[in-house]
Structure formats: structure tokens, C-alpha cells
Structure to design on (566 residues):
């Protein structure tokens, strides 16, 4: 987790230097009861869809919003003294992800204004093209909804009469009662959170094929005083991979998994849950306790390791990870070029110069000996590591490590390239990409920090994951490769106690709307944020949040039929 320019070194420390994190544990049966009372007979999903195009329709030959066009405008027919100065904001949406079984489709248009205005703005089905630079004004289409008095921030119109399912839908906003322009954020606005969006909810016309509440919760592991599990090299995880030629998105029936760990449908559900001194540094129990809370086994367990090549920090897979693999979980080893205990940070030149070959080869040998495919990362979020070297140094180090693994026969390593995904670094990502032959998955770390990083913006799940996803599509980095949320998380909203629960409940719909994401891993730690009365990024800081997360994890999209009691 990074708050643009801050490192997360504190989460890597071991022994007495590491701060213990207290996790409130709720019995699995209690959580199941909470979830059962929330689960409707018919499934329901919410989608947040960004506008595909927008424009300002006007007869005025020049207008500020038609140049850089970070805004669109509305104005009455007589506008700023011009009797023919009227303007309509025209917005187009391409809706493609509503299931065929959806009924009772409800759609809400959301547009952001920077000031409050005493004006009426009506939404209409539009015959105009949102893709023209400045289309001529025409008669408004059927009235959909009206806002009487424009608010500062987001304004909403019910457009359900128009948006009845999948298709391309265009809405015009028509202003009256104020003869001055109102500007609205457009699809080109530099802040993705302010851009026009369409929120869609619906019910499904049939019951889910397998009611998720019937699945048993996993049995918690032994108490912290129990000895750590002993590895048994002759036992292997229950998952059987179906080979495919590459890490590209596979085809075939649900339940097949490629040799690069890509599920044929749906997505993996994962967890980073750090161990602490209070629990005896039991990395197995740190995960199984959370599994007991949410009533399922995680597909992926995420751990961070260093270059010390000793102890649980550096000599991985450790005994906890070996046990988790035997129990059918996939491991994601995020390998960082530093020493967590001493605080030493390596430079990327230390890696590719050969000075770390002994460590690299030892880790490669242990990964090879694991005998099953594992996710492997090297220095996640390198754009936030200015002291390690240049972007070119990172690429050279990545390739060097990859090539030594290949020479060591560790072909079961599935390489995950993980970036922050922050728009402030978009110009750097092409230079940080090692190349298609060195990368199997493309990952990023999106967060809804809300006030944790000084913002006041509450981002929906779709907004949270959508920005870098679209950038990757537009720029072709890792084209055709599966994507992963190597970390994701959300704060709560002190003014709306149910917001975090709803955020989790809406998360599966956000994944379905971004189908190239084939794995999502929650970062269940404060990271570099501080727990305050308005900030807590952990998943299980209260019962409502746990219930929301548990419901998300029961969605069939996140329950892979590949073995294990998920």
C-alpha cells in the first residue's frame, strides 16, 4: 500500500521491531448468521459504468469547454446575453455487462458540478451524437428526470426509462431557469472520480445455482501456542492445472486453470493478512482466522519476503506456506530487494551485478522444489522506490532475476508485474515494463483511501479499479495478459456507517465489469495509514464490514470449482 510517495516499510519488519496489529475476531457462526439475514432470495448487483463519450451541443462557434474539454456545459436558450447561446451536455454510455437474466433494471446518471446553482436541469433521451466536437442543438428527446436546484458535487438523474439493458445509450442535459453556464466534469477531466458515470442495479430472475450460505466455514487452525505445521514434501495441493500455451486469458468450461494459473472464468479471491507478535508470528493462523470470520478458504495467500535468505522473511516457502499449499491454496510471493529486519535496502544494480546471485539461486531452487505453480513478484510498486535506481535499472534487475530462475529450472514461477497504478506515474509505466516474455500477469494496487490520505472523495469499487484498467487498455501494456489486484482495500465512512459494507457487497459487480481482472487480493493491514476515528483500511474492523466482505466472497464469480473447501 502506498499513499503516493510514501513507502510501506513498516509492514515488513519482523521480531520486536514489528508493531502488533489487533484484529477483532467474530465467530464464523455469527458471521454466517449476519450474512444469512442479508442474503436476498434473488441475487442483486450494482455496476458503475464510465461514459464512453461526451460533448457540448451548441450554436456558439467557440466555447472554452470545447478546446481541452475537461468539462461539458449546459445553459438556457438565452445564455450570458446571447439569445442563441443555449448549450446541452450530451453523454454516451456503452452498457455491456448486464446479465441476460437481469430484471428491474435501474439506472442513475451522475454528473459533477463545482458550484451550487438555482437552475433546473432535465435529463432527456438524446438523438444527438456525443462523439461530435460541437453538434448543433436539436429538439430534446423524451423527458427522463429532473433536478431542481444544482448541488455542488454529484447530481443524479433517474434514467431507467431509457437504460433498460445492454446497449449504447445517450442522454442530453437541458438547463432552464438560469441564463448562465453550468460546467460539468467530462470524460477527459483529469480526476477520474469526477467523470460522468452511470450506476446500474438490477435483480436476477432466478436463484443462484448454489446458495452460498450453505457452504461450511473452514476449521480454524491451532491456537498460537500450538507448534507450527510440519511440512510434508510428499503431499501436494488438491488443485490440478489444465495446461495451456501461455498466460493469456483461457477459454473452456469453468473449473479449468492454465499453467499460468489463469482461471477459465471468474476470478481468484485472495488475502494478505500479516502475522503479529500477539499471535506468536503464526503466519498460518493469521490467514485461517480471517477465513473463519468470512466463512471460506481464500484461493490466494499473499506474503512479502526479503533478500535475507533466512527465517520466514527470506527462506521461503516457509513451513506455513508449505502447509497452505498442501491445503490447496495458491501462494503469491512478493519478493522485495531489502532486508526487513535490518532495514537495509538494496539497489537494483546490486541485483543485476551478480552480487545477490547466491540468494537468487537459493530462492529459485526452493520455488522449483515446491513442485506446483506459484505467483512470483519482484519489487512491487517500483515507481515508489526512487533510492533503488532508475526505471531502466528496475527492468534490468527484473529480467536478470527472471533469467536466473529460468536457468535454475524454476519454470513453475508465474511472474506478476505489480505497479501502484496511480495516474501520476502513467508516463513511466511503459519504461517500467520488462517485456511480454518476462511477465505473465499484470497487477496493480487500487485503494479507496477516502480521508486516510487527506481526500474527501469516496470512490466506488468500479471507480477504484477502473482507472489503471482503462489506461492499460488504451496503451497496450501487457495486452492479452490476465490482470490482478495484487492489493486492494477501502476505508470506512464515519458519516455513513454502512458504506464499507455496501462497498464490499458491490465489489463482485465491479470485477464482472472489468473481466480481465482474474484475481483480487485484499490488503488487510493499515499499511502506511494510521488508524484513527475516520481511518481504518482493515477488512474486519467491525461486524458490518466483515459481513459485507463475507457476502462478496460468496459470490459465484469468486468461488472457483477447482478443489478445496471454498
Amino acid at each position: 500500500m502506498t499513499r503516493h510517495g510514501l513507502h510501506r516499510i513498516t509492514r515488513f519488519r519482523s521480531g520486536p521491531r514489528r508493531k502488533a496489529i489487533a484484529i477483532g475476531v467474530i465467530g464464523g457462526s455469527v458471521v454466517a448468521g449476519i450474512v444469512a439475514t442479508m442474503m436476498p432470495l434473488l441475487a442483486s448487483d450494482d455496476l458503475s459504468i464510465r461514459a464512453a463519450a461526451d460533448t457540448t451541443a451548441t450554436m456558439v462557434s467557440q466555447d472554452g469547454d470545447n478546446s481541452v474539454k475537461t468539462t461539458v456545459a449546459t445553459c438556457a436558450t438565452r445564455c450570458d446575453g446571447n439569445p442563441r447561446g443555449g448549450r446541452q451536455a450530451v453523454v454516451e454510455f456503452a452498457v455491456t455487462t448486464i446479465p441476460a437474466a437481469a430484471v428491474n433494471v435501474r439506472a442513475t446518471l451522475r454528473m459533477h458540478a463545482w458550484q451550487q446553482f438555482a437552475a433546473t436541469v432535465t435529463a432527456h433521451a438524446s438523438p444527438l451524437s456525443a462523439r461530435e466536437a460541437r453538434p448543433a442543438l436539436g429538439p430534446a428527446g423524451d423527458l427522463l428526470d429532473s433536478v431542481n436546484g444544482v448541488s455542488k458535487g454529484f447530481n443524479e438523474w433517474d434514467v431507467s426509462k431509457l437504460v433498460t439493458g445492454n446497449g449504447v445509450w445517450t442522454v442530453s442535459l437541458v438547463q432552464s431557469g438560469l441564463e448562465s453556464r453550468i460546467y460539468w466534469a467530462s470524460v477527459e477531466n483529469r480526476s477520474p472520480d469526477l467523470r460522468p458515470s452511470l450506476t446500474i442495479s438490477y435483480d436476477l430472475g432466478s436463484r443462484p445455482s448454489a446458495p452460498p450460505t450453505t457452504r461450511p466455514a473452514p476449521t480454524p487452525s491451532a491456537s498460537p501456542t500450538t507448534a507450527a505445521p510440519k511440512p510434508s514434501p510428499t503431499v501436494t495441493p488438491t488443485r490440478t492445472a489444465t495446461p495451456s500455451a501461455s498466460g493469456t486469458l483461457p477459454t473452456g468450461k469453468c473449473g479449468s486453470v492454465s499453467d499460468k494459473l489463469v482461471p477459465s472464468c471468474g476470478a481468484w479471491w485472495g488475502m494478505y493478512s500479516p502475522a503479529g507478535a500477539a499471535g506468536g508470528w503464526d503466519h498460518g493462523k493469521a490467514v485461517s482466522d480471517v477465513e473463519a470470520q468470512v466463512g471460506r478458504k481464500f484461493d490466494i495467500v499473499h506474503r512479502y519476503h526479503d533478500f535475507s535468505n533466512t527465517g520466514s522473511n527470506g527462506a521461503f516457502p516457509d513451513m506455513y506456506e508449505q502447509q497452505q499449499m498442501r491445503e490447496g491454496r495458491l501462494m503469491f510471493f512478493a519478493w522485495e530487494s531489502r532486508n526487513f529486519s535490518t532495514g537495509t535496502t538494496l539497489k537494483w544494480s546490486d541485483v543485476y551485478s551478480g552480487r545477490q546471485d547466491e540468494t537468487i539461486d537459493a530462492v529459485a531452487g526452493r520455488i522449483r522444489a515446491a513442485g506446483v505453480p506459484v505467483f512470483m513478484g519482484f519489487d512491487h510498486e517500483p515507481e515508489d522506490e526512487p533510492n533503488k535506481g532508475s526505471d531502466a535499472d528496475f527492468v534490468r534487475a527484473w529480467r536478470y532475476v527472471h533469467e536466473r530462475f529460468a536457468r535454475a529450472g524454476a519454470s513453475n514461477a508465474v511472474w506478476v508485474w505489480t505497479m501502484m497504478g496511480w495516474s501520476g506515474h502513467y508516463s513511466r509505466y511503459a519504461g517500467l515494463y520488462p517485456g511480454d516474455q518476462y511477465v505473465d500477469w499484470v497487477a496493480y494496487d487500487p485503494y479507496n483511501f477516502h480521508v486516510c490520505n487527506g481526500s474527501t472523495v469516496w470512490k466506488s469499487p468500479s471507480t477504484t479499479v477502473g482507472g489503471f484498467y482503462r489506461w492499460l487498455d488504451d496503451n497496450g501494456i501487457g495486452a492479452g495478459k490476465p490482470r490482478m489486484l495484487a492489493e486492494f482495500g477501502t476505508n470506512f465512512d464515519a458519516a455513513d456507517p454502512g458504506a464499507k459494507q455496501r462497498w464490499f457487497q458491490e465489489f463482485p459487480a465491479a470485477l464482472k465489469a472489468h473481466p480481465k481482472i482474474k484475481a483480487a487480493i485484499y490488503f488487510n493491514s493499515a499499511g502506511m495509514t494510521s488508524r484513527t476515528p475516520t481511518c481504518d483500511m482493515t477488512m474486519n474492523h467491525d461486524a458490518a464490514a466483515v459481513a459485507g466482505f463475507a457476502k462478496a466472497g460468496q459470490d459465484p464469480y469468486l468461488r472457483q470449482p477447482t478443489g478445496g473447501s471454498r
In short: The CA atoms of residues 364 and 405 lie 5 Å apart. The two ends are 27 Å apart (CA to CA). DSSP finds eleven helices and 20 strands in the chain.
